[in-house]
Amino acid sequence: MTDEAQQSLKISSRLKSVGYAMRGLGFMLKTQHNAWLHLAATVLVILAASFLQVRLDDWRWLIVAMIMVWVAEAFNTAVEYVCNVVSPGYSELVKHAKDIAAGAVLICAFGAAVIGFLTLWPYVELMLDRFHGPVSL
Questions:
Q1: Per-residue model confidence (pLDDT) at position 129
Q2: How far are the Cα atoms of 1, 28, 38, 75, 114 from residue 120, in angstroms, in the given order?
Q3: How far apart (Å, rounded) are the C-alpha atoms in residues 33 and 102?
């Protein structure tokens, strides 16, 4: 094994990589207003699911949905920055790339909202039944 390969396996190298990733996420939160909306939605979902005492097997769907949106937003941000470097001036092709990346975030956010509704509604319905009698959509 080469010295470079051995170096990349060291814990200190892995920790540096994690640090770079955390710095990237921090930069995304500082510069992307939509990331703040995703953060607010994430906190609201966690609070609602905790209040509703969502079962562990339902939490996994909520977690996957939240991660899906965050990953899409991170990739969208990366695409925007790469496009700005590759083509600092206006380009219709770059505009299409950015619009498609933003569309991917929208698809993920919509899907996450559907997953959230389908997962949380039975708990909301149960809570409403306890206080006001049966409710259904």
A1: 87
A2: 51, 29, 18, 28, 10
A3: 13
